[in-house]
Amino acid sequence: MTMTKYRIDVQIVDDHAMFTESLAEAINRSEVAHVSNTFATLEACRQAFAKSRPDVLLLDISMPDGSSEKFCRQILADYPKVKLIAVTIHDEYSVIQRMMDSGVHGYLLKSSPVAELIKAIQRVWRGGQYVSAEVEEIIRKAKDESVELTPVERNVLQLICSGLTNPEIAPQLSMSVETVNWYRKRLLAKLGVRNTAGLVTRAMQLKLV
Q: What is the pTM for the complete model shown?
């Protein structure tokens, strides 16, 4: 007779019903976790959390009713014991980085085997983090890629990393504030980040400053 090692309570947020149903069945068959609830919207999950929370929440990051990044930050702020795993089709480094920055404990692609998802659930439930082998490779390649900056872009980046604002940078480079803002947006896009904090961190990782 097979003994159940763990009964990790899992919930799923995904608006694709067929995927959710098949995933829930697979998790329930694993004997290490069970799916207690599924949600088709972030709001439905948010409301349910007021009464009942899982050990691990699996989250599709492309939801129709809001930002999954903001949702992750809110859930972790309100319920810090809940573990979050992004399960998605998105394999772009910038998306992965944004979700990791939002606090998720794991990131897997929907093409990952169920056995790997079960492994991820166990890992994060025990307090660790997990990214699939595919995602690890995407991150590695992104970090290895060299980012080509023009001399002006490099100057703007150095001043941003020094903590200067657009109005402070403008006179130093004989530019208008609007032009500095344009360069700032261009740097955010090139480095695949969303805000100044991410820009500074990425620039340091790539040794651009």
A: 0.69
